[in-house]
Amino acid sequence: MDEDLKQEIESFLNGEGTEAERTDFMDRLKHDEEIRAYVQEIGLMEHAAKMIGRQEMKRQLIEQTQANSVSAPIWKRPVVLVAAVAAVLMLVMLAGMWDRIFPPTPDELYSKYFEMEPPGSLRNDGHTTWNEAMEAYTRQDIQEARTVLIALTEDSSLVYRQRAYLYMGICEMLLDNDLSALSYFQQIPEVHLFYPKAHWYQALVYLRLQDLPSARKVLEQIREDSGHPKQKEAVALLEELPE
User: What is the mean pLDDT of residues 33-38?
Assistant: First the structure.
């Protein structure tokens, strides 16, 4: 890599330059693989620092200094001290900017926030098919649960069909049938008890589909609903969502 480019990268990481220059560099960083690779290499320092810990770093620095000169206290070695301070500042800078430079992908966010809905309660009102579906879902035989749930969603006499739609959508998500999952969640009306859960899962499906505008729209709706059970998660996810 050209030395001038290295110096430009290090100046950026040190917080130097005008706001316009830093904004221009951020745009270049998103599209220039050579710059990204170099910054990622520097980022390995942050990981090493976390593993070693501040105390371990301090101990190693003191030991190295003593090895160089047993009689010379560290405060009398300005070159070593300045280098240590510069390294710490660099790590702090990287820690604060890492997520901005390399934001998580939609798939990574999906994996972070997706959780299976706990199985529904078994019933004693003669609907043994529902119980069969929940038993299969509990043992994570998702294909079997899906097969049974399909029969339930097609039963016009089923009084808890909306609940079946919710679990059917989750099964489709687990089987990577995202568009089908979305269609089941969308069939649950807003006034229904299970709509908030279905709404949250819709946002996650949009993440999987890489439809970030739709995901953001749903998450913003959840954020504005103070009674939504996933409001806190929606706020956190919006903060991590790529632009």
Answer: 68
Q: 189, 222, 192: which is closest to 204 by C-alpha?
A: 222
Q: Are the C-beta atoms of 233 and 200 separated by less than 8 Å?
A: yes
At 101, the amino acid letter reads I
Question: What CA–CA distance (Å, rounded) separates 186 from 51?
Answer: 45
**SS3 label, residue 234:** helix
CA dist., res. 118 & res. 163, Å (int): 12
In our burial notation (b when 16+ CB lie closer than 10 A, e otherwise), range 117-145 reads: eebbeeeeeebebbebbbebbeeeebebb
Higher pLDDT residue, 159 or 148?
148
Q: What is the DSSP letter of 75?
A: G
Cβ–Cβ < 8 Å for 216, 240: no
Question: For residue 232, what pLDDT is reported?
Answer: 96
